[in-house]
Queue: 2 jobs
Job 1
Amino acid sequence: MLQQKIVIQLSMSCDKSRSKALTLAARAAGVTSMGITGDGRDQLEVVGDGVDPVCLVSCLRKKLGHAQII
């Protein structure tokens, strides 16, 4: 299978919300690795196999507020 890389812009103001975002991403099916990227450390980069980006973003929106796929 093809590895896909999804970058999601989040409104993460503090380290607590960053760790929450990483925890949520880790729970998603098919995720192999993830990290916080971007100049303002406000982007979640998820790499995985058959990850459902729509489901992941809606989960993040529920918990953290603003989230969009870049």
Job 2
Amino acid sequence: MNKKAFCTAALAASALWSGVAAASATVSETPSAAQSTAAPADLALQISVGEPSYAAGSGHLALFMAINSLRQELGVGLLRQDTSLDTAAQAHAAYLSSNNLSQHDEAAEHPDFYGASPLLRARKAGAPAAQWVGEAVAAAKGGNDNDIGQRCFRQWYHTVYHLQSLVGNQESVGVGYSQRGSLGLNLCVLNFGTLTAAQADPAPNGVPYVGGQQFDAKTIVTVPRSGETDVDPSFNGDSESPDPAPDLKTPGRPLMVYANGAFGEVLSVGAFKVVDSSGAEVPARLLVSLGAKASGSDGVADAFVRNNAAFLLPIAPLAARETYTATFSGTRAGTPVNLSWSFKTARASAQW
């Protein structure tokens, strides 16, 4: 197909329900201090991709457009359609729908079994043996397939572990979308592929730090985005298992700072806070990677947070229609990072 610039899609609607099982966040942890952090030319960002083959108005197209819209706005590179991963993702969506499940693994004794793990399903569908495969799963109700696909996407967008999976260095994506199951839900599955210059021995469900597409080491990504409006005040806790804050009944919308993670360079935190329009600081919990905690930064060390990410999780939902300002200071691979940005919340939290 001819290449063309990707057109931004509207990120509308809120999620009604999700039930995602364990968030697999397997990553490569084999950095070398002697390795260069510069991205080779073949790891440059994909700023355009071919038109997808998904049908107009389908849940598949809604999911594809939503994730690429986000990645375009954040400057982390677009994802091209991967037909092998389409097959694997669709097979898993059918399995989940048939068995009223929402998880990454499959059991051979259950109807519509295709493969035990995201990696094995991708290989069965024809993916290269060297390709890393990561997966995200959600389920939702809605008025039509386009609406439901966007609702699934927004579930991931308002989490911790799944949020970072949306903006990683993967380079392709396959989309699965099931017919409505007996619970009245449509299942949404994304399979991410990382192949170019990725290290050997892919994990069953993971993304390596190296390879794929790498944004500039000086670029720092924030979510919510600077100037973003209608930010949901709440955290979609139902989509995260394990729960990053099981002791908090109703946390607020997580804030993420995300850096280039080539070779596992650590993003460490000196200070990370958010204040409302009056200047009052919002009580929040800092979540950092194990590498950041080991380097001396404050915060809760979380094994599922990538080395190149840090999260601030408000203890309670943010206020509606309020403007917040976040500030961050720290280091990435020893280089100072200082950020300040603002966003505005929506009228009310979504009913997940």
